[in-house]
Design brief:
Elements lengths: L14 H11 L5 H14 L3 H4 L12 H13 L14 H8 L4
Helix pairs in contact: 1-2, 1-4, 2-4
Length: 102
């Protein structure tokens, strides 16, 4: 499948709100906890230095690689035990590379 490209899907909100989404869903509302989680997650996803001065800008303004790292930051903000990562290659392509059948 040529030209297949998976897009990262940050929420159409500011960077900060993208990262704290899962924590808010879990009921966390303490500002200090949310602020710490934002910085920790953005640093872990290697995007903090690029967005630290633009935390209140729309995530849709980011380039594709930055969007991907923002989505990673959002995923790890809640400190999950397991994080499932989808490959960027379609399943049929991965299977062909390994020489196995789907």
């Amino acid at each position: 499948m040529h030209g297949f490209r998976r897009q990262q899907n940050p929420f159409p909100e500011e960077h900060l709100q993208n990262v704290v989404f899962g924590l808010r869903v879990d009921g966390e509302g303490r500002r200090a906890v949310l602020d710490e989680a934002v910085e920790r997650s953005l640093r872990s996803a290697a995007i903090f230095d690029e967005v630290k001065d633009r935390l209140h800008k729309s995530a849709l303004e980011l380039r594709a690689g930055q969007r991907q790292r923002l989505c990673i930051a959002r995923a790890i903000a809640t400190r999950p035990e397991v994080l499932r990562w989808m490959s960027l290659a379609p399943r049929s392509t991965r299977s062909r590379r390994r020489g196995s059948r789907t």
